[in-house]
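Curious: why this fold?
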Amino acid sequence: PKQVLPTDGRERQVIRRGENLFGQVGCATCHRPRMILNNPIYQEPNPFNPPGNLRVQDVPRPFSFNLTNQGLGNRLERWIGGRAVVRAFTDLKRHKMTDAGDRFFDNERIPQAGVPTDVFITRKLWDCGSSAPFGHRGDCSTMGEAIMHHAGEARSSRDQFMLLNATDQEAIISFLMSLQVVP
């Protein structure tokens, strides 16, 4: 995934303004633009595998490779000090996404692994420009609809988005739609 920018200078400016507004209204608090990996080496099995899964002690030598310069396809961006950056637009944390004012996302009936039905892991946005439908379960037909149903811990950011004029709201959506999966 990467950001795809149009060749038209005005459209690029709109996307840049949308990116700034995305941070200003608080969306980047949970949809963090980047995560830094202290170690770009992927290893399997790894020390974090839970019991019942393949563990490091079960194999003579784990399989590993550097995510910044090995493997098929696109690679992670190298970062300062041998680290790597992942521009995923998530914090990989769970957040309460509904409240009494908007229960749209709370339509599950059975908690899974003890997680309440109104709590979701922050969805990655790194490919939202090429991954409709939208929302945490893919049940919104537009990006605007998904934003409008953010409640709970995200209500403040949603309310700030709603206070923006239509041009600024569209700039944020243009920025989000520029985040795409490319060949």
